[in-house]
């Protein structure tokens, strides 16, 4: 179920479960802030873009759902390693996953306006 906040293993995944370490710089990720303000997270999204686009062409199969959940978990792990903490009043696991989806959706829409079919390119690159 798309609205579920469980990871693939079925256990509830709280954002506070990520490995933030005391003494580390803490940067709070807020709801409307652009990814560019969090360079390590934007880099992660760019590095995973082709895989995301390839999976998005699957019309929401269970494989795509697993990929999206795992991508979200990996983004949260990356965030924790770099001292980013998602504001829990704005985000839960599903909200982070939706924010990732919106990032890629904006990328696709922007490319289409320039006449580029990035979903097709990602499929060909596979």
Write the layout of secondary structure elements.
Blueprint: E1 27-29, H1 39-47, H2 49-56, H3 62-81, E2 84-86, H4 93-113, H5 118-125
Parallel strand pairs: 1-2
Helix pairs in contact: 2-5, 3-4
How is this structure best described in words?
- This protein has 126 residues and is mainly alpha-helical.
- The chain is built from five helices and two strands; from the N terminus they run βαααβαα.
- Strands 1-2 form a two-stranded parallel sheet.
- The chain is globular.
- Helix 2 crosses helix 5 and helix 3 (62-81) packs across helix 4 (93-113).
- The two termini are 27 Å apart.
- 14% of the residues are buried.
- It has helices at residues 39-47, 49-56, 62-81, 93-113, 118-125, and strands at 27-29, 84-86.
- Mean pLDDT is 83; it is low at 1-12.
What is this structure, in a nutshell?
The protein is mostly helical. The protein is built from 5 helices and 2 strands.
Could you name the key traits of this structure?
single chain, 126 residues, mainly alpha, 52% helix, globular, disordered N terminus
Terminal CA distance reads: 27 Å
Largest sheet: 2 strands, parallel
Helix content: 40-55%
- The SSE order reads EHHHEHH
Output the strand order for the largest sheet: 1-2
**Unreliably modeled segments:** 1-12
Structural class from helices and strands? mainly alpha
> In percent, how much strand structure appears in the residues?
under 5%
Q: Nearest-angstrom radius of gyration?
A: 15 Å
- Total of helices: 5
Shape annotation: globular
Q: How many DSSP E strands?
A: 2
Mean pLDDT: 83
């Amino acid at each position: 179920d798309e609205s579920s906040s469980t990871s693939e293993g079925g256990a509830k995944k709280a954002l506070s479960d990520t490995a933030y370490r005391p003494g580390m710089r803490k940067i709070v990720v807020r709801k409307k802030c652009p990814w560019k303000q969090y360079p390590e997270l934007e880099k992660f999204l760019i590095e995973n873009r082709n895989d995301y686009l390839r999976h998005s062409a699957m019309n929401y199969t269970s494989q795509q759902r697993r990929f999206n959940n795992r991508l979200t978990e990996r983004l949260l792990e990356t965030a924790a390693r770099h001292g980013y903490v998602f504001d829990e009043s704005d985000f839960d696991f599903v909200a982070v996953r939706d924010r990732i989806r919106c990032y890629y959706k904006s990328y696709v829409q922007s490319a289409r306006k320039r006449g580029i079919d990035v979903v097709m390119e990602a499929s060909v690159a596979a």
